[in-house]
């Protein structure tokens, strides 16, 4: 027993995670041309303040499982920067969650939220709780215990969490129910709520649909191409991947791959969304291996059977690739394979799924590369629409939300493309995104004083 406790402690205390440094390093290098040209950034110590979170909150989550055993998890909320508006960012429930991972996600969120042009600051939170294999009642008990602590730190004008990996409408519903019970307040303190009680139409689809709206604009402006008839590779099989695939199909593209944490599906006829949703949609967690029970002509590649350092989703010829699973999932080897097979564009649906070496290679080989903080900002944009609807007690129709979402995604593309050009980094959408997002946040930080 002592060994088990020590092993768990070691996991939560010693986990070395470099993703935060990776994210900061990318952003700061992008900002060189702008920070050297304006002395106010040094006078107000903007960069030092920007890389330091406002606060890191950690709490104990105690709950009782279906066998009446007491379970303990770590809960976190990192409120990184609220210069532009209330803290806003998802909650992730996954065993890999640590302060390091959440710091990287919260930091990226500041820039993503700034790019939307909406009044929202950056935050992220979550727990090392693993929802896989848990009953609905266990998920509910965990969510209630999590909210018993979290409610102290959030509020409709303070900090508005949403979903992320392992947190969908079911978890948000349980979390919201508990918030309401404790505080007696029915306000928009969480986004991604079910439509029945305050959720926005299109929020479940927003991130994936937004990724494809962004991609369509990018391809039209940069390559004079459309998605019609193009083969696309997607990784992941969760919320972002499913809705990216759905919208790609609406645009006439053929999606040939998707994946989960155990393996990859290659379907040369195009991924069958109905089958995929039966396995993975709406909190379902069946393995993708069962896809081939329904579609025997498809191929399933187990993760262990694929050569080390590469991902099977990227090994098939495609016009565009959409990594939509998790951070650092597309490596240098994958980039070499994709380029060898003639890929023209890589658009990130997940947060930082492409390693820095792979990004460098795409950029040097002339492959269009769109970072997640720009391409996947549609989810947080519709979350902000949900906040607006809650504040005014209104309900917008589907077409209104969809129109506003596609406008925002087109606008983000234009803004980052123009900014990249303005700073002599034409077609470098990483630098364009970082500089455009930074300018808005930094201006607010200067005006608000120290
Ligand atoms: P989900 O939990 O719905 O799906 C995640 C998918 O990725 C699942 O298919 C999961 O496999 C797979 N996955 C998770 N971890 C790993 C891993 N370590 N290795 C391989 N596969 C993995 O999450 P979302 O779709 O919501 O999020 C996906 C990405 O998009 C994340 O980076 C998230 O931060 C980002 N994002 C999400 C937004 C949203 O609105 N949901 C908004 C903006 C960004 P399995 O099915 O086996 O668990």
Give structural notes.
By secondary structure, this protein is of the alpha/beta class. Among the domains are: 54-189, Leucine Dehydrogenase, chain A, domain 1 (Rossmann fold, 3-Layer(aba) Sandwich); 206-375, NAD(P)-binding Rossmann-like Domain (Rossmann fold, 3-Layer(aba) Sandwich). It has helices at residues 2-14, 19-35, 40-43, 46-50, 99-115, 136-150, 169-183, 203-223, 239-250, 273-280, 291-294, 332-340, 356-364, 372-375, 378-392, 398-422, 429-448, and strands at residues 55-64, 70-81, 87-93, 121-127, 159-162, 231-235, 254-259, 263-266, 299-302, 320-323, 345-347, 368-370. Strands 9-8-7-6-10-11-12 form a 7-stranded mixed sheet, sandwiched between helices. Strands 1-2-4-3-5 form a 5-stranded mixed sheet, sandwiched between helices. Helix 9 (239-250) links the parallel strand 6 (231-235) and strand 7. The mean pLDDT is 95. It binds NADPH dihydro-nicotinamide-adenine-dinucleotide phosphate. NADPH dihydro-nicotinamide-adenine-dinucleotide phosphate binds next to helix 9.
Strand and helix layout:
Elements: H1 2-14, H2 19-35, H3 40-43, H4 46-50, E1 55-64, E2 70-81, E3 87-93, H5 99-115, E4 121-127, H6 136-150, E5 159-162, H7 169-183, H8 203-223, E6 231-235, H9 239-250, E7 254-259, E8 263-266, H10 273-280, H11 291-294, E9 299-302, E10 320-323, H12 332-340, E11 345-347, H13 356-364, E12 368-370, H14 372-375, H15 378-392, H16 398-422, H17 429-448
Helix pairs in contact: 2-5, 2-17, 5-17, 6-7, 8-9, 8-15, 8-16, 12-13, 15-16, 16-17
The protein binds NADPH dihydro-nicotinamide-adenine-dinucleotide phosphate.
